Amino acid sequence: MSYDIHVFDPAAAPIGREALRAWLAGPARDEQPSALITRAVGALQQFYRPLSEAPDTLTEGEHFADYAPEGALLSLSAPWYEAEDLTAVVHRLATEHGWGFEDVSVTDGMLWRPDPARQVDPTPLVGASLTVENGGTHADPSPALLAASVDWIADHRGPAFAILTLGEDDYVQYAGGRDGLTVERRTPAATPPGFRHTVAATSASTAGHLVDLPGATRSFRVLPNEVLSAPDAVTLVLASARGATVPASIAWHDITSTFGA
Q1: Bridge partner residues of 101 (DSSP)
Q2: What does each C-alpha distance from 36 to 33, 93, 131, 242, 243 come to in angstroms?
């Protein structure tokens, strides 16, 4: 059996999750690939050569996939042992080139299309590293990839968390699901324990009981005012990546002492 992913041209695909899923699962298309799909094949083949070129015995570092481009849709298949790597490649390239994708081989798998109203800088953040649960680690991620990774967490079919590492004791981690996200920020400090760890909140109050914030694969214990909307999470992650000021509506709860400080 193979691991299958659909790549599609958002401009040609119907709006709405159910309509889009029905379109993706529809009959085979006997059409010439669109310009976007043709470019997608070229970009992907830099990482996965066509299966037709595979030798009888693979050497280390060689990756192959089967490509079936038709109209506004590309069906991509690879061996199951390539699943995590292939997913990471497709997801990252989709954010850079404006494709949509569907993880076909996962029951009710992740389905994503870029937000046409979102204008995010595609320039890589050199020296940074993004790790997405079940989605690999990406060196020099772009702000577009960071924003998309929040979308994936907000979709209950996607990952439950991601960590953007900016340096030693300098990172932002975000987690959750369709009910909201929580964002934590760690920065270096000159005094022991050598860092400051905070949680973003919609108010400065730290009163109240912890609640469970469910994610796709796990839950997270947070205060009610530490549950953020996906747009707010995007704003905070991008601000952290750029060293920019966060909105005045966001407070930070200092939880450094919970790390044994």
Answers
A1: 7, 112
A2: 8, 12, 27, 30, 34
Instruction: Tell me phi and psi for residue 191, to 5 degrees.
Output: -105, 155
Tell me the one-letter amino acid at 217.
Answer: T
pLDDT digits (tens, 9 = 90+) for 45-55: 999 999 888 77
Rounded to two decimals, what is the model's pTM? 0.85
Residue 65 CA to its chain's centroid (Å): 22
Contact between residue 159 and residue 212 where contact means Cβ atoms under 8 Å apart: no
Token pair in block for residue 235: 């704003």
Give residue for tokens 């069906």: 75
The H-or-E segment that residue 93 falls in is: helix 83-97
Q: What is the pLDDT of residue 225?
A: 97
Is-contact 172 234, C-beta < 8 A? no
Average pLDDT of the residues in 8-29 = 85
Using one digit for the tens of pLDDT, what is the confidence trace for 212-236?
A: 999 988 999 999 999 999 999 999 9
Looking at residue 110, its amino acid is M
Cβ atoms of 163 and 131 closer than 8 Å: yes
Residue 17 tokens, joined: 């999750």
